[in-house]
Specification:
alpha/beta; Zinc Finger, Delta Prime, domain 3; 5 strands; about 10% strand; 16 helices; Rossmann fold
């Protein structure tokens, strides 16, 4: 489950593979993806494009297998430790002057360069600008904002955009059991494969969504808030808020148009009037801002739950 089926349909992959087939490869590429958990996997795919003898990675040959294991001699992965540092760049510069041992290309893979210090980035500049012959650099980043303009200008930037829920669900259904648990994981993943898998494996996505439904349907008085609040941990708060936002949006759509609601969405629409749903939406936006600015977790949860009770009372049917 390396994501190849998803990646090969992206514009980033098509551009990169096209550069290889046309013989117009740049010496340095910056692969940008929000998916921190799967970024290195994506970089492995691009590395295999460079070193596999087939037109596209076969994922069967010895070379592809060794790249997956990070043990192919002509493809070197960084960081060597937990984070990219100056010593990694020193090691890269030294090894860049060694000729490829098994193929015709030497490939250096760096993930995540957004974590690199300014000193490390500056040290990498000369190699980015004038790499030795047949040397290629694949830089992975979850964000371009920490990168120096001089680094950006020396790389060909390729964006891997978040996948649609349908794309992720259809892909993961081939590896994981489908159903509500997978749907919840995908819905809360932000279009990122790694996040979807993590939420599925931990079950946190389904838990957060179930708690959101429970609060919207069954929370009716302020005396219940403490009991509900105790169920929502800091670890699932973001997923809880995201679940609330998605559920409320679907309930509003159902209430106004009478379409698109499953049984639980219909229950939410029956529990809250349109005015109450709008009120809760405003509280959700406030909570999202508070989380972004590291607001107190308990205060954020209690504020949200009180907003639900307040909305039901103020806009009672």
């Amino acid at each position: 489950m390396d994501g190849y089926t998803l990646i090969k349909n992206t514009s980033a992959y098509k551009i990169f593979n096209g550069d290889k087939l046309r013989g117009t490869l740049s010496h340095a590429y910056l692969i940008v993806s929000e998916d921190k958990l799967f970024l290195e996997n994506y970089l492995k795919i691009f590395a295999k494009v460079l070193v596999c003898s087939e037109k596209e990675p076969c994922n069967r040959c010895r070379v592809c297998s060794l790249v997956d294991k990070k043990s192919f001699t002509d493809v070197v992965f960084y960081p060597l430790g937990k984070k990219l540092v100056v010593s990694d760049v020193d090691d890269l510069i030294e090894k860049s002057y060694f000729k490829p041992l098994e193929g015709d290309k030497k490939v250096f893979v760096l993930s995540d360069v957004a974590d690199m210090t300014v000193q490390a980035q500056n040290k990498l500049l000369k190699t980015l600008e004038e790499p030795p012959k047949n040397t290629f650099l694949l830089l992975g980043a979850t964000s371009i904002y920490p990168l120096l303009p001089t680094v950006l200008s020396r790389c060909k930037k390729l964006d891997i955009k978040p996948f649609s829920e349908t794309e992720l669900y259809n892909y993961l259904e081939g590896f994981l059991q489908g159903g509500d648990k997978l749907k919840s994981a995908v819905r809360l993943s932000g279009g990122n494969l790694g996040e979807a898998i993590n939420r599925y494996e931990t079950g946190e996505g389904a838990l957060a969504e179930n708690l959101a439904y429970d609060a919207l349907i069954n929370l009716k008085t302020s005396s219940q808030i403490a009991d509900f609040s105790a169920k929502i941990s800091k670890e699932i708060l973001k997923d809880f808020i995201s679940s609330l936002a998605s559920i409320v949006s679907q309930a509003q759509n159902y209430a106004l148009r009478g379409v698109g609601g499953n049984e639980r969405i219909k229950s939410v629409a029956n529990a809250l009037s349109v005015g109450a749903l709008v009120h809760v939406s405003q509280k959700i936006r406030t909570a999202e801002k508070a989380v972004y600015f590291n607001g107190n977790t308990v205060a954020v949860i209690d504020g949200l739950l009180f907003g639900i009770v307040e909305g039901k009372f103020k806009w009672s049917k």
